[in-house]
Amino acid sequence: MKIVYFGSDVFLSCFEYLVEREEILALYTYHNDEDYFNEYNIVNRARELGIPVHYEAIGQDRIRQLFKEEGCDLFFIAEYDKKIDIPEDLKEFRGINTHSSLLPQGRSYYPIECAMARDLPVTGVTMHKLSNDLDSGDIICQRKVEITGERDSVDIYLMNAANARLMLQEIMSDFEAAWSLAVPQAEVQEYWRRPEDALLTMTHDMCVQDALEIFRKYNSMTEILIGNR
Questions:
Q1: Distance of alpha carbon 185 from the chain centroid
Q2: Mind listing the pLDDT tens digit for each residue in 150-182?
């Protein structure tokens, strides 16, 4: 298959799986200083392989060109920060999004951190058909991950990445069957916003255990209050 990949280092294992077996036409990525995982490894790997790297958003004209003229079969999205606007008239379009929650619960840019902020016992990773409504497409497959006191947010991301590679392998073993068997989401739930600053902030009057709990949940998003700053 000819695939355009959208993502960062979070699901690098999926990128590695696809470059070994399919033709990657381009990589679209982004940089966010707040994220624990950046894009450096996936960008370096793409450049080693001669795959064009883009930081800009992709427009509808380019999407049409890829599917109608360049033989693209699939958009694969795995941790990407821009909404992809699918042309309504492009019947050839097919895309899969990889999301770090058990949809329909956990529509969010911060799904793991928000799940931990809510003290949920379980989360996971979902692959679903890309649609113009964020995180709302038909579900192709899911895998669960328990949120325990011994696991921090990075542990959960890494476990989701390992599961995502296994899921991708299953999908690609019989893509047409996996695509046709996708199940509509039962309901569209609320969109989880970024946790409030108060939840992310360590203060000097906290005990060590409370401070560590903040870092366990939010990692590089953690803030420290010094005086009034």
A1: 18
A2: 999 999 999 999 999 999 999 999 999 999 999
